[in-house]
Amino acid sequence: MKSSDLAIGEVAARFGLPTHVLRHWESVGLLAPARDGGQRRYSHDELVRVALILMGKRVGLSLRQVRALVENRDAAEEAALLRAQVEALDRRIAEAREAKALLEHALECPLSFHECPDARAAIESWIPAVENNSSAAPVPR
């Protein structure tokens, strides 16, 4: 245990997180801080892991996926996970661009959003089609 190790409150403050988040990440196996008299002590390596978890969450990874990245030493599996996330981000970016285009059109259209034919068409596209014997959830187009 080094004197440079930080207590949970210090780590939480440094990253702008509530302490319960760090405890949760520990409970799911993402963090393993040392203990000193029952107090958690975070080394620089643990700070790196907190930063990695936050970066993973920022790019849309679940905690399970972050854990797989942290624990996995197979480059092919790691690349597959990252590739899948890039594809998911590409889909989200495309959806965000469509949403932005709709909003920009609504701002430029002289008609109200409810009267605009383009907005109406976009709204109508969200109404699920009737399918025989299907209990699948509607998918926006």
UniProtKB/TrEMBL annotation:
Keywords: Coiled coil, DNA-binding, Repressor, Transcription, Transcription regulation. One of its GO terms (molecular function) is DNA-binding transcription factor activity. Residues 72-106 form a coiled coil. This is MerR family transcriptional regulator. It comes from Amycolatopsis acidicola. It holds the Pfam family MerR_1. Residues 5-72 form the HTH merR-type domain. The lineage of its organism: Bacteria, Bacillati, Actinomycetota, Actinomycetes, Pseudonocardiales. InterPro entries: DNA-bd_dom_put_sf, MerR-type_HTH_dom, MerR_fam.
